[in-house]
């Protein structure tokens, strides 16, 4: 075994020696359970050091949390672009997804995890299909995930029964894995794809199991207009009536919320996941009203959405898109400053998924990213947050730890070649099967 391989397999306490936090050079001590045991003075003495990572010329930041993904859609990257959301879903994405296999989801999720690790993400909130295979990929890659089966009943009773079974079976499967990094949530896709009965069942099941809810909300104006026409209520009110708005709910997009809906989300303790790149690409024509959500006290976090509407999973780019879109759309250069964008991508995401404080503090899980302080994007280095949000992308990430385990070091992730080959082969096979069937 080479020396560089050791760091991925070694177990024990870790000392990150001399990394930069808030402009100071400090040691970070991580105990053998993967918890931060000390930062700065006295950190070295807090543990019996097994593994040392050189932190010099590295900015230490909390691991990023991607709160809205369809990870295996990495296989659909670039498959269909430049379309209206409804056409894109109904003409391109759903017909291809009809041919998805468990193996596709396994390889797509492996590819997504690889991409996330390489850009500093340690946890994600996923909604897709064949999620037992997604769990296998997450387990192998070493990051955290909350996995939801995408519940879509299209108001067809037989389909609803099938979705209920799939949701229950995933919950049982995730429980049986007993992996603290992997959790499950209920994933009612949206108010336009799930019946009232389906939404109510999802809410009840989530409550009974003590798990979260992951839903798309108010992504387009059409969603709001159609919902009002069909039910007399706006989407957030409808979800609330069905019991879907809880402190463990993550609502993705939230572009077309009105001010009262922002207050409702805050009151219910819902986390709103901002997905600026996807929203701009699909031209949903309104930016999430961040100022109203913030004023109401809602937890606003960040997500990329799937690789078919983004088309990557780089949360550094997403922080920049969020900060720029908010300023541009609401005509306010002071809205969503860099520090807040970092908080959105870290602490707010961790709060949404319940993965810890999402900060570098003693007692927190050691989900730590080391960014190259010598990279072009960090030169000069007046304000770290400014560079992280406005200048860098995920390529500046050098080392990633999740629960104290090293997942990437000096940009090496074990098994990268095999993942790239496996995912490319799965994508070819998926598109081939779809062509044959049409
Ligand atoms: C879980 C389901 O969500 C779909 N999906 C992917 N991106 C979006 C989006 N921006 N809005 C709504 N649904 C989406 C996936 O294609 C899958 O069918
Ligand atoms: Zn989505």
Automatic annotation (TrEMBL):
<feature type="binding site">
    <location>
        <position position="219"/>
    </location>
    <ligand>
        <name>substrate</name>
    </ligand>
</feature>
<dbReference type="InterPro" id="IPR023512">
    <property type="entry name" value="Deaminase_MtaD/DadD"/>
</dbReference>
<comment type="subunit">
    <text>Homotetramer.</text>
</comment>
<protein>
    <recommendedName>
        <fullName>5'-deoxyadenosine deaminase</fullName>
        <ecNumber>3.5.4.41</ecNumber>
        <ecNumber>3.5.4.31</ecNumber>
        <ecNumber>3.5.4.4</ecNumber>
        <ecNumber>3.5.4.28</ecNumber>
    </recommendedName>
</protein>
<comment type="function">
    <text>Catalyzes the deamination of three SAM-derived enzymatic products, namely 5'-deoxyadenosine, S-adenosyl-L-homocysteine, and 5'-methylthioadenosine, to produce the inosine analogs. Can also deaminate adenosine. The preferred substrate for this enzyme is 5'-deoxyadenosine, but all these substrates are efficiently deaminated. Likely functions in a S-adenosyl-L-methionine (SAM) recycling pathway from S-adenosyl-L-homocysteine (SAH) produced from SAM-dependent methylation reactions.</text>
</comment>
<feature type="binding site">
    <location>
        <position position="70"/>
    </location>
    <ligand>
        <name>Zn(2+)</name>
    </ligand>
</feature>
<dbReference type="InterPro" id="IPR050287">
    <property type="entry name" value="MTA/SAH_deaminase"/>
</dbReference>
<feature type="binding site">
    <location>
        <position position="97"/>
    </location>
    <ligand>
        <name>substrate</name>
    </ligand>
</feature>
<feature type="binding site">
    <location>
        <position position="189"/>
    </location>
    <ligand>
        <name>substrate</name>
    </ligand>
</feature>
<comment type="similarity">
    <text>Belongs to the metallo-dependent hydrolases superfamily. MTA/SAH deaminase family.</text>
</comment>
<feature type="binding site">
    <location>
        <position position="305"/>
    </location>
    <ligand>
        <name>Zn(2+)</name>
    </ligand>
</feature>
<keyword id="KW-0479">Metal-binding</keyword>
<feature type="binding site">
    <location>
        <position position="216"/>
    </location>
    <ligand>
        <name>Zn(2+)</name>
    </ligand>
</feature>
<dbReference type="InterPro" id="IPR032466">
    <property type="entry name" value="Metal_Hydrolase"/>
</dbReference>
<feature type="domain" description="Amidohydrolase-related">
    <location>
        <begin position="60"/>
        <end position="406"/>
    </location>
</feature>
<feature type="binding site">
    <location>
        <position position="305"/>
    </location>
    <ligand>
        <name>substrate</name>
    </ligand>
</feature>
<dbReference type="Pfam" id="PF01979">
    <property type="entry name" value="Amidohydro_1"/>
</dbReference>
<feature type="binding site">
    <location>
        <position position="68"/>
    </location>
    <ligand>
        <name>Zn(2+)</name>
    </ligand>
</feature>
<keyword id="KW-0378">Hydrolase</keyword>
<keyword id="KW-0862">Zinc</keyword>
<dbReference type="InterPro" id="IPR011059">
    <property type="entry name" value="Metal-dep_hydrolase_composite"/>
</dbReference>
<dbReference type="InterPro" id="IPR006680">
    <property type="entry name" value="Amidohydro-rel"/>
</dbReference>
<comment type="pathway">
    <text>Amino-acid biosynthesis; S-adenosyl-L-methionine biosynthesis.</text>
</comment>
